[in-house]
Design a protein that fits this description.
Layout (H helix, E strand, L loop, with lengths): L1 E3 L3 E5 L6 E6 L4 E2 L15 E2 L11 E3 L2 E3 L13 E5 L3 E7 L2 H6 L4 E10 L2 E10 L5 E3 L2 E2 L2 E3 L7 E14 L4 E11 L2 H7 L2 E4 L5 E5 L4 E5 L5 E5 L7 E7 L19 E3 L4 E11 L1
Antiparallel strand pairs: 1-2, 2-3, 3-4, 5-13, 6-7, 8-9, 9-10, 10-11, 11-23, 12-22, 14-21, 15-16, 15-17, 15-18, 17-20, 18-19, 19-23, 20-21
Length: about 280
Amino acid sequence: MIIENEQLKLEVCHEGGEIQSLIYKKKGLEVMWQGSADHWKGKNPTLFPIVGNTYTKDYQIDGKTYAMKNHGLIRYATLQCVKNSQDEIVMELKSDENTLAQYPFEFTYQIRYKLMDNRVMITYQITNDSDKDMPFTFGLHPGFNVSDFEKSVLKYACPEKATQIHLGNVYESEVELYEWPLSHQEIADASTIVYKNLKSPYVDLMMPEYNLRMSIEGYPFFAIWSSDISAPFICLEPWYGHADFEPSDCAFEDREGMMKLSPNKTFMTSYWFEINE
């Protein structure tokens, strides 16, 4: 499925309903990470109904044990295209026997892609089709090509005094952020850089070829990741919740960042990114 305008050409695939390609037409450049066995096979999955996983890789609902792969269901599913107009693509997944065996709730999940000049607008709509409250969280995991880490900078919309969650021996610290020269080593040392309580509505990924501005407003957590110290991409990840960073006896529905959706109700969220000179 392809939509395009004078500035961008967007291709979406059935696998995960993900962006397969985004071409910045002025320079003929591929914006999105394409996946590679040498680094990370993923591209830009969406994370539902869990970000990461529980510490034990399983969880209990109504006394029964279930398990999902890392980041939940959508990235491993085949979504159907329910709309492909001149400027909009809508991908959909409805719960089935496979999803119910991993996550015992009926749902309808939609991803809506729309081009607006130099911007890609992505909207997510999750409907609880079951007859009980549905606990879930949600996150984004887009990978962007970076040709030269040493010449690229991540800049926040405003100077930040935020909280960083350190993995491993889990603890939190207060940090000041504004302009961060991209560093494979800092990402590797942290495993994943995770912040919370950011105030910036967007971040700018400033690279030699172009700048990419991505919205993060409304998401309580923001993570930065790359697969290894030579990977030519970076993932900028707004999350509503997060994985278990340490052992926990907390009920699945009570984990930090989990939400509850009533029967027949719909949760909507969105983000965007745009290409600028």
